[in-house]
């Protein structure tokens, strides 16, 4: 049964009210809401920083911890009643890149994630915490128990591999359905929500940094009345790529063609996303090797198979296998199957 209440309080033990109340008001910026009894105050209710606390001598419990988000975090302190005050920051932290060659094979190592989704980790070492990539699936379709939220990120991409999913985004009009081969760029802090999914939905999600906050927005209804497809979100625009009817052009390696998802233009060159397949009209020639000097190069086999030779070692990549290729590593792509489709994600947009 849901409890009806006008407000909620965090109750903290307090044997000596005076100095504790003074600390919370003068040092931490809380304000007094209630004090009683008047002739000999023993209990006080204070509010501040989105929190309401009750200082009570009769409560028997640990003194607890209060975390205050500060623009200039200080060292931890202890209030007179024993409550530990931790000063922290919620600013996005972009870890230093630790490049590595990672090869992740398709498998059954799925774990439970948010809103009933199952996750498979595609970059276990996170490249030092700089990037995360996940293979996500929803086995049983229907309404998704999601809520309006946003991510505090530098870059985030969603690619549908199997099935379909209905989503809605802030200032981007009514809900729409993404199908296999479609993708969206989720710019920083755009509000969005997953509404429905097919049975067996699979998506690939890539984010930077690896650890980023997902924040609920309980006040913004979606869809929003306004539509602004060119709105700037942290220097990026929302971008939606639809596979059906997309144009194919030569890829950066001969013998292949690609459809560009338009992410480079939407991020002002920060990132690029392409879907690669063998070029049926290309002249036969020997695979060409090379390297890159970029921050991030990621490839996921959406369908089919292909060989990657990197630093003299050949790896045969099958469906749902993926790799990250560090800068400076000599590599070449060869021997693609006729049904190959390869997801190619790079930072910057052009390597």
Give the topology.
Elements: E1 10-13, H1 17-27, E2 31-36, E3 43-48, E4 51-56, E5 65-69, E6 77-78, E7 84-88, E8 102-104, E9 111-112, E10 118-121, E11 132-138, E12 142-143, E13 149-151, E14 155-162, E15 164-169, E16 176-179, E17 183-185, E18 192-197, E19 201-208, E20 214-216, E21 239-241, E22 249-250, E23 256-260, H2 263-266, E24 272-278, E25 296-303, E26 306-310, E27 313-317, E28 322-324, E29 331-334, E30 341-347
Parallel strand pairs: 1-4, 5-7
Antiparallel strand pairs: 2-3, 3-4, 6-7, 8-28, 9-10, 10-11, 11-19, 12-18, 13-20, 14-17, 14-19, 15-16, 15-18, 17-21, 22-23, 23-24, 24-30, 25-28, 25-30, 26-27, 26-29
Descriptors for this entry?
351 residues, mainly beta, 40% strand, elongated, single chain, seven-stranded antiparallel beta sheet, 30 strands
Describe the protein's architecture and organization.
- By secondary structure, this protein is mostly beta strands.
- The protein has a seven-stranded antiparallel sheet with strand order 8-28-25-30-24-23-22. Strands 9-10-11-19-14-17-21 form a seven-stranded antiparallel sheet, with no helix packed on it.
- The longest helix is centred in the N-terminal third of the chain and has 11 residues.
- The mean pLDDT is 93.
């Amino acid at each position: 049964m849901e409890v009806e209440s006008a407000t909620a309080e965090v109750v903290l033990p307090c044997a000596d009210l005076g100095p504790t109340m003074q600390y919370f008001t003068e040092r931490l910026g809380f304000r007094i809401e209630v004090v009683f009894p008047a002739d000999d105050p023993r209990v006080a209710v204070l509010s501040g920083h989105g929190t309401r606390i009750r200082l009570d001598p009769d409560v028997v419990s640990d003194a607890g911890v209060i975390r205050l988000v500060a623009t200039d975090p200080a060292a931890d302190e202890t209030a007179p009643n024993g409550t530990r005050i931790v000063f922290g920051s919620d600013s996005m932290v972009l870890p230093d890149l630790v490049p590595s060659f990672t090869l992740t094979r398709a498998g059954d190592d799925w774990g439970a994630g948010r809103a009933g989704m199952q996750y498979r980790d595609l970059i276990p070492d996170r490249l030092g915490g700089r990037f995360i990539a996940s293979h996500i699936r929803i086995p049983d379709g229907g309404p998704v128990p999601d809520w309006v939220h946003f991510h505090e990120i530098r870059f985030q991409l969603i690619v549908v591999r199997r099935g379909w999913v209905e989503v809605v985004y802030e200032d981007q009009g009514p809900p729409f359905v993404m199908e296999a081969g479609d993708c969206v760029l989720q710019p920083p802090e755009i509000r969005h929500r997953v509404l429905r999914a097919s049975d067996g939905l699979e998506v690939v999600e890539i984010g930077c940094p690896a650890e980023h906050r997902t924040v609920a927005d309980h006040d913004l209804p979606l869809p929003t009345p306004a539509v602004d497809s060119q709105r700037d979100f942290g220097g990026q625009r929302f971008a939606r790529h639809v596979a059906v009817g997309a144009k194919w052009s030569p890829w950066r390696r001969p013998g292949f063609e690609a459809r560009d998802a338009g992410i480079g233009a939407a991020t002002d060159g920060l990132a690029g996303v392409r879907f690669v397949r063998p070029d049926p009209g290309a002249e036969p020639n020997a695979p060409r090797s090379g390297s890159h000097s970029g921050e991030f190069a990621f490839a996921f086999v959406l369908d089919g198979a292909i060989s990657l030779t990197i630093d003299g070692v050949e790896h045969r990549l099958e469906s749902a296998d993926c790799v990250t290729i560090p800068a400076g590593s000599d590599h070449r792509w060869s021997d693609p199957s006729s049904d190959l489709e390869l997801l190619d994600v790079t930072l910057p947009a052009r390597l």
